[in-house]
Amino acid sequence: MDIKGKVVIVTGASSGIGEATAREFGREGAKIVLAARRVDKLQSLAMDINSMGNGAETFVVQADLSKLEDIQMLVAQTLEKFGRIDVLVNNAGFGRLDWLENLDPIKDIQAQIDVNVMGVIQTTRQVLPVMIKQRAGSIINMCSMAGLIGTPTYTIYAASKHAVHGFSEALRREVKPWGIDVSLIYPGGVVTEFNQHAGIKRKTNASTPKFMLLTAEQVGSAVVKLVRRPRRMWIIPWLWSVTAFMNKFIPGFVDYTTITRFTIPEREDELNVK
Ligand SMILES: NC(=O)c1ccc[n+]([C@@H]2O[C@H](COP(=O)([O-])OP(=O)(O)OC[C@H]3O[C@@H](n4cnc5c(N)ncnc54)[C@H](OP(=O)(O)O)[C@@H]3O)[C@@H](O)[C@H]2O)c1
Question: What's the CATH number where 159 sits?
Answer without folding.
Answer: 3.40.50.720
